[in-house]
Amino acid sequence: xxxxxxxxxxxxxxxxxxxxxxxxxxxxxxxxxxxxxxxxxxxxxxxxxxxxxxxxxxxxxxxxxxxxxxxxxxxxxxxxxxxxxxxxxxxxxxxxxxxxxxxxxxxxxxxxxxxxxxxxxxxxxxxxxxxxxxxxxxxxxxxxxxxxxxxxxxxxxxxxxxxxxxxxxxxxxxxxxxxxxxxxxxxxxxxxxxxxxxxxxxxxxxxxxxxxxxxxxxxxxxxxxxxxxxxxxxxxxxxxxxxxxxxxxxxxxxxxxxxxxxxxxxxxxxxxxxxxxxxxxxxxxxxxxxxxxxxxxxxxxxxxxxxxxxxxxxxxxxxxxxxx
Length: 324
Description:
Order of helices and strands: HEEHEEEEEEEEEEEHEHE
Shape: globular
Number of strands: 15
Radius of gyration: 24 Å
Number of helices: 4
Oligomer: single chain
Strand content: 25-35%
Helix content: 10-25%
Structural class: alpha+beta
Largest sheet: 15 strands, mixed
């Protein structure tokens, strides 16, 4: 009897403490004015080249955090369309990149090459000239690698595990190399079709703890920016934002290696993307590999291979007609 009363007393005290704290934090509010520091815009360069594909570079101006953004603002104030952009390879090739429509770009437009295709064990120097400034960076496409196996993995601790899975891979690290890995995904299904690549979680990793060993890794889908996915229903938008996979999905998995500078950017930029919107974490510094004044971004080379997984819709998960 005394034991139960003690618990009642403890609960009452805890409730009173919570009410007192609530009154402290929310009952005495005072409006304050915060003077934001002057914002200095920087040029943002986001470029990549991959084995078998031409280079793609997106140029933009950074904008203040509290700026109101719409399509007109993006096209006229953010995207840079009149820069000189070209690449030079370590085997002596050179090519200017032209601003053009690009389905693979998150923003539909980018500077893109036509003749030079990325090759393994080759370095590429990017040069950007804009507003009397020159920006440069060099990246290397290393060697590709093969997976030992890849499959849909059941999430056993979920009630609806028969309609929700991740992807699991098995691979063996090369003990004679320093390796930096990244995985990207595209999902095709009756509800939606990924236009651009989605990074997996983890976004990138090195081989310091897995050097020379065979290991398993679970891949979850980190949804890409949905700013330019127009005319989506709420159901389609929710489907596109999911981390896992469903019956009826065809999933293309791109597994890549990169050099150290590209890896540093991927890790720092990825942490900022994942944690930057959380109020419980400080912003992480993004490590750029672009040389020049007032510039952010990266120029990355990827050595990539592809695998495709198909999960047949055997239980009618997508049997309902799509809403128009």
